[in-house]
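forwarding from the other thread:

> can someone predict this with NAP?

sure thing
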Amino acid sequence: MFTALVTGCDHGLGPALAENLAGRGWRVFACRLSPAEHQIDELSARFPDLISVHELDISSDESVQHLKESLAGQLSSLDLLINCAGILGDMEDGPDGRLNYALMEQVISVNAIGTLRLTAALMDLIRSGTMKTVLNISSEAGSIQDCWRTGWFGYCMSKAANNMQGALIHNTLRPLGGRVIQMHPGHVATFMRGYLDTTASLTPEKSASNILHTVLDTDLPVRDRPLFIDHSGKELPY
Ligand SMILES: NC(=O)c1ccc[n+]([C@@H]2O[C@H](COP(=O)([O-])OP(=O)(O)OC[C@H]3O[C@@H](n4cnc5c(N)ncnc54)[C@H](OP(=O)(O)O)[C@@H]3O)[C@@H](O)[C@H]2O)c1
């Protein structure tokens, strides 16, 4: 049986990824930030032998260490780590307007450093897995070559940094037969903006289904650098 760990399973894309993996018969360690969020409990009740729920704050050394210790008795290898957790920060910022540096630091702390913190903590488990694959849910907003916005400083910088930490991890995993994939999930109808984004073109379930079809069912090439692709497999420029 394949094993995956998915972060950000409170709501949005994370639980949709966990549900799709369980539907494929995978064992899923689903991590949520807040125990007050129960969507993943309902999925765990539907797939009691496949989905277990864990608390995790990727911005905290202590929380990541606690997860690592609690996993020690439960699994000896991890085939797929999906770093899905993320926050948006300020969408109304700009160089001539407000720039909330404290919030920017928080966004970078979660989206870039938090992703690395968890991946690094689980490296031994990933090395022991059959796939040795880290799937980072990045964003087109992290592309420097395609940058068109004048704001969203924290989010765009954090996703560019997420892409870089992914490239560095790829350099460790690739010689071992593993890889990192940087994934743009599309514009997904989630609560990331603090309200349901009804302008989005994809439901979380459709995005998750496309992502996992692209990663697990198609023969993606392995290159010197991590693929930076969207949910349909289309390559994005760094
Ligand atoms: N939605 C889109 O159109 C879109 C586009 C491009 C990329 N993405 C990326 O897709 C990923 C999933 O986002 P989403 O759209 O599904 O939004 P979402 O519903 O807000 O999901 C984000 C998840 O991350 C969790 N989280 C936040 N801070 C965390 C922390 N410190 N530690 C652990 N978990 C934390 C959230 O928990 P709480 O909500 O309980 O705080 C939530 O479960 C993100 O990385 C996002 O950047 C989304």
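The helical segments are 13-23, 39-46, 61-72, 101-121, 123-127, 153-173, 204-217. thats all i got for now
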